[in-house]
Amino acid sequence: MILGNETGVFLTTPLQLDEESIHLVKECVDPSSERAALNDPGLYQKKGYITLTGEVDSLSPVQQTEGDFPVRDVEIKEDGVKKKVSLQKEAATVPLQPGQMIKITHVKSNTQENKFTSSEFTVVSPAVEEPAVEEPASNNIPLHLMGEHASPAERQPLVTDQFLPVTDSDPLLHK
Predict the structure, then answer these.
(1) Within 13 A of 2's CA, how many CA atoms are on the CB side?
(2) Integer Cα distance of 48 and 41 in angstroms
(3) CB 15 within 8 A of CB 25
(4) How confident is the model over 9-22, as a mean pLDDT?
């Protein structure tokens, strides 16, 4: 909520909303975006917002429309399948390079043109592959080590597959 000098605030009785109404309000403010694979045969029939990931295969230069907002077409590929995404406004201004892995959230399918169109909620970001993480036992924490001989700028945490047991008497838990 943003309040300014001219914002009027009124006290009212608490508003009772059912779970469905709360869900609808949340979807309006921060809609969900379902991950979809480019090789999904029903990709263009999906309803709602979808998230696509892939490698930038080609991209057009950013152009200004008559409405004076930037647009750009990007073709992405995943598992040998290519799809075109039309990016508009802020999404069109994100710097992209051919060969870059990206994730594009909150796009809608345009079945007439066989492409996808960005929305006001679209975010274009580098795709980060999340490595599979093995869950430690519930009473263990991962052991993180710092390289002692590296300069502060070069120091990176080294994660090992060794775990230290944690007990209720551990002084670090009671600080």
Answers:
(1) 1
(2) 17
(3) no
(4) 84
